[in-house]
Amino acid sequence: MAERERIEVISSSYRFTHTLNLFLYTMLIITGLMLFSIDLTAWLAYSVGSPLATGIPTTEPIAQGVQWARAWHRFLGHVWGALIIIYPLYLVITRRLTTFIPLKKGLRKQIREAVAVSKYYLLGKPLPEDIANNMDRHNILVAHTAILLVVSSILLSVSGLAMVYRDAIGLDLEGFRLMLLLHDVGFGMGVLYVLLHIFAVLDPMNRPLLLAMFGDGRVSLRWARNHMPKFVEKFLKKKEEEERIQEQLHM
Amino acid sequence: MVSLTFPRRDEGVAVLVRLDRCIGCRACQVACKEWNSLEYRPTEFSPTFTTPQDLEPNVWKVVFFGEITREYPTGFADPYVQPIPFNCVHCQTAPCARACPVGAIKVSDEGAVVIEGRECIGCGYCQEACPYNVPRQREDGTYTKCTFCVDRIQHGMEPACVAVCPTEVFEFGPASQVLASAEAERAAGKEVYGLNLDSYVGGSIRWVYSISKDKAHALKIRLPEKATVPFNFLREVLNPVIRYGAVLGAALLAVIGVIHEVKYRKERVKALKEATKEKGGKE
């Protein structure tokens, strides 16, 4: 396989889900922020609510804007909830969930890798050779931040649903208070994840991955060999196997 | 309107509720309904005198009847029914107003905490934040509660419930004067509720209760010892942590990112120059 050749590192289903998730998550943050922190978003609530309130003289623009955001937040929350249930299920059933593979390593190895990767991202120190040569599709920090995302998503979706269907499930006032707190905690964790994620993907070394995510999902073989050698090794092995089977079939 | 200004503790108005004088006639409860044009509904029989059993969207004031046992120094004890007229206590720094995401809960210069119905979006955050569980949801989804009869106060009148009381349970007046009366009650050996409360409600409320020590446990029927909502208190702590943490985190990561980018570009230029040099040398 020529070094200039490009290999697929992000499947089309992953790219589609990521784009959809990006849209829904952004909309949920914007609409949710109006309830979480109106002093920062009153201008937006006013802009949205002003035309809505014009036709209804007994309402206020900010109240209308926030009400509009709240309605959308609830609707989009359901769509997002469906997405975060269906896609991971698909990944698990088709055995394509690779994000947590680094967690199979021993704890010591995990810590060493996490420290090395953090030093690279924060201080620009190159990875030790043995760690660099053993890099798979995702590094250990990706697995750790993915746990953060999973916990955050569970907190957000469970508490969100409980609050929307408060009367139907008989949630009492104390339960509602707890759910509201958990929703905020989940949001905080989600914000932390988003910050770390954006920081990592904007790193110049990860640029080909970023372009692949919003492009055709492919990176050059040379780049992949440098950044995910173990993944390339497995990829090439699988490809050779497929070619061998094809040859045998044609013989 | 989303900004909030709470009048100081000694500013505005307040009410001292002398429970020892209350005979449980419920005139205050009726006057509240009358003045605020709140709809009546037939109530059910219950094992207590309290009717209806709790605050409702159309019941902003309820006289609760708490059955307590009064103990005497001789060892004799007898049952006693203590009426407790209860409505929104208008907290010093009302948590409901702080929690409202649209600023629908206004605090007047007099200290009255009022839900502006046309601005309410029905999220229920006010009820969630209230340690006294006061705001109630109407059928249209909006929340409602006692207004301290702010419309009367601003026209020089007393709140309706205060005005009708036949035994002068309520002492209404400037907050400084009422607070002094409450302190005097305390000095006279009475149990006073509402002066030294949690910082969550601003340390005090504008409806202060006083009662004889031997009947003091009746207060617990409707007035919690800790005027706080731990879950909402945590939310209030978490909110700035998330907001400022996100801004600071983003700024810090952006700086590191820019440093990385500059370093990366310099290294790339260097590598390109070296590669060009090598190429030139070979040729």
Automatic annotation (TrEMBL), chain A:
<dbReference type="GO" id="GO:0022904">
    <property type="term" value="P:respiratory electron transport chain"/>
</dbReference>
<feature type="transmembrane region" description="Helical">
    <location>
        <begin position="185"/>
        <end position="202"/>
    </location>
</feature>
<keyword id="KW-1133">Transmembrane helix</keyword>
<keyword id="KW-0812">Transmembrane</keyword>
<feature type="transmembrane region" description="Helical">
    <location>
        <begin position="141"/>
        <end position="165"/>
    </location>
</feature>
<dbReference type="Pfam" id="PF01292">
    <property type="entry name" value="Ni_hydr_CYTB"/>
</dbReference>
<protein>
    <submittedName>
        <fullName>Cytochrome b/b6 domain-containing protein</fullName>
    </submittedName>
</protein>
<feature type="domain" description="Cytochrome b561 bacterial/Ni-hydrogenase">
    <location>
        <begin position="11"/>
        <end position="215"/>
    </location>
</feature>
<dbReference type="GO" id="GO:0020037">
    <property type="term" value="F:heme binding"/>
</dbReference>
<feature type="transmembrane region" description="Helical">
    <location>
        <begin position="75"/>
        <end position="93"/>
    </location>
</feature>
<keyword id="KW-0472">Membrane</keyword>
<dbReference type="GO" id="GO:0005886">
    <property type="term" value="C:plasma membrane"/>
</dbReference>
<dbReference type="InterPro" id="IPR016174">
    <property type="entry name" value="Di-haem_cyt_TM"/>
</dbReference>
<feature type="transmembrane region" description="Helical">
    <location>
        <begin position="20"/>
        <end position="46"/>
    </location>
</feature>
<keyword id="KW-1003">Cell membrane</keyword>
<dbReference type="InterPro" id="IPR011577">
    <property type="entry name" value="Cyt_b561_bac/Ni-Hgenase"/>
</dbReference>
<dbReference type="InterPro" id="IPR051542">
    <property type="entry name" value="Hydrogenase_cytochrome"/>
</dbReference>
<dbReference type="GO" id="GO:0009055">
    <property type="term" value="F:electron transfer activity"/>
</dbReference>
TrEMBL record, chain B:
<feature type="binding site">
    <location>
        <position position="91"/>
    </location>
    <ligand>
        <name>[4Fe-4S] cluster 3</name>
    </ligand>
</feature>
<feature type="binding site">
    <location>
        <position position="130"/>
    </location>
    <ligand>
        <name>[4Fe-4S] cluster 3</name>
    </ligand>
</feature>
<feature type="binding site">
    <location>
        <position position="165"/>
    </location>
    <ligand>
        <name>[4Fe-4S] cluster 1</name>
    </ligand>
</feature>
<feature type="binding site">
    <location>
        <position position="28"/>
    </location>
    <ligand>
        <name>[4Fe-4S] cluster 1</name>
    </ligand>
</feature>
<feature type="domain" description="4Fe-4S ferredoxin-type">
    <location>
        <begin position="79"/>
        <end position="110"/>
    </location>
</feature>
<keyword id="KW-0812">Transmembrane</keyword>
<feature type="binding site">
    <location>
        <position position="149"/>
    </location>
    <ligand>
        <name>[4Fe-4S] cluster 2</name>
    </ligand>
</feature>
<dbReference type="GO" id="GO:0016491">
    <property type="term" value="F:oxidoreductase activity"/>
</dbReference>
<dbReference type="GO" id="GO:0015944">
    <property type="term" value="P:formate oxidation"/>
</dbReference>
<keyword id="KW-1133">Transmembrane helix</keyword>
<feature type="binding site">
    <location>
        <position position="88"/>
    </location>
    <ligand>
        <name>[4Fe-4S] cluster 3</name>
    </ligand>
</feature>
<feature type="binding site">
    <location>
        <position position="161"/>
    </location>
    <ligand>
        <name>[4Fe-4S] cluster 2</name>
    </ligand>
</feature>
<keyword id="KW-0479">Metal-binding</keyword>
<dbReference type="InterPro" id="IPR014603">
    <property type="entry name" value="Formate_DH_Fe-S_su"/>
</dbReference>
<dbReference type="InterPro" id="IPR017900">
    <property type="entry name" value="4Fe4S_Fe_S_CS"/>
</dbReference>
<feature type="domain" description="4Fe-4S ferredoxin-type">
    <location>
        <begin position="13"/>
        <end position="43"/>
    </location>
</feature>
<feature type="binding site">
    <location>
        <position position="123"/>
    </location>
    <ligand>
        <name>[4Fe-4S] cluster 4</name>
    </ligand>
</feature>
<dbReference type="Pfam" id="PF13247">
    <property type="entry name" value="Fer4_11"/>
</dbReference>
<feature type="binding site">
    <location>
        <position position="96"/>
    </location>
    <ligand>
        <name>[4Fe-4S] cluster 3</name>
    </ligand>
</feature>
<dbReference type="GO" id="GO:0051539">
    <property type="term" value="F:4 iron, 4 sulfur cluster binding"/>
</dbReference>
<protein>
    <submittedName>
        <fullName>4Fe-4S dicluster domain-containing protein</fullName>
    </submittedName>
</protein>
<dbReference type="GO" id="GO:0045333">
    <property type="term" value="P:cellular respiration"/>
</dbReference>
